[in-house]
Amino acid sequence: MFTGLELADVFRRHGDAYRRAHDGHLGRVERRVMSAVELCRTAALGGHVEQCRDCGVIRHAYNSCRNRHCPKCQGPARAEWLAARQAELLPVGYFHVVFTMPPAAAEIAFQNKAAVYAILFRAAAETLRAVAADPRHLGAELGIVAVLHTWGQSLHHHPHVHCVVPGGGPSLDGTRWVACRPGFFLPVRVLSRVFRRLFLAELQAAFEAGELGFFGDLAGLADPAAFARRRRELRRVEWVVYAKPPFGGPAQVLAYLGRYTHRVAIANSRLVGVTDGHVAFRWRDYRHHGKVKVMTLDADEFIRRFLLHTLPDGFHRIRHYGFLANGHRAGKLALCRRLLAVPAPEPDPSPTEATDRSHRCPCCGSTAIIRTTLPRPWRSPTSRSSFWNDTS
Predict the structure, then answer these.
(1) Is the pLDDT reported for residue 385 higher than 50?
(2) Rounded to the nearest 5 degrees, what angle is found at the Cα of 236, between the Cα atoms of 133 and 216?
């Protein structure tokens, strides 16, 4: 049931108390995220007034914060990103593979987000590429769209990478298309072991290069002997790689990507109540067959859990590898279509049509709209921030 509650309501009611209570430990990124969500689509960010010349209806619209952690700002960004991806889909089956690090590695990642999340991306992508290139498994080059998620349903820190991969690719000599077996992609046991080896090798290299920092309960890991013991522990446990059943076709892939790529830790639709200093929200308990339950947390704890998932400035949580890598994507996709004997897709006019609709009166449909800008209220230089530009 939709309650109309927003994450912004939590921050507006309890954000100041949280800032005071955690003043010495709250970072710049976390403060900016809280401010952005609180002010999103309010007069504080300015906006515009639209008046229809034909029917006279007047509509106020305030600017969005455009922060990638804000639940209200992901729709337009998602639509724009999906429009660009639609032309890249191939008429083949697609698979969804999830790479997860164990808790002993996740706590290192939390204290070294930029370095270890990047290692997670590279290890997952290189695992898929290396295993797929092996003639014993596929003998082909893959294209990979990888998306980082750092949360579980209860908002605990749970970093993992979702990879969407076509079920095949060009042969290593580029002369033919190699398709995987129907309903089967790559052996997950092999993927798991290669992933563990590559991740731990990169983690060791980062440690030796002085790229990792440790504090609090993990401060002891700064000692090389203690870090070596942690690596040995991680080598002894199983690393989870999960391959989901294949999608039905490119249209389903696009719908799936739309749900995953621009998701934030919690959507507004999951909020149930904000009362008496507590926040209640819906979550799925996958240990009980995905049963939907309601969890109630103290507002301070709810905000703490949400802020666990803020990302460093400039960190890209959607990445492309293999024949979908940015540097040679167009040429490689042309090769794939040639090997598959399929034409390039026609341009999709729907984004333009959607843009046209957004400039029509919602009451009568007229395009005779008078638009007046509402300036952003003046703010002192010390209070000014660039949170509305955090879209990376």
Answers:
(1) no
(2) 110
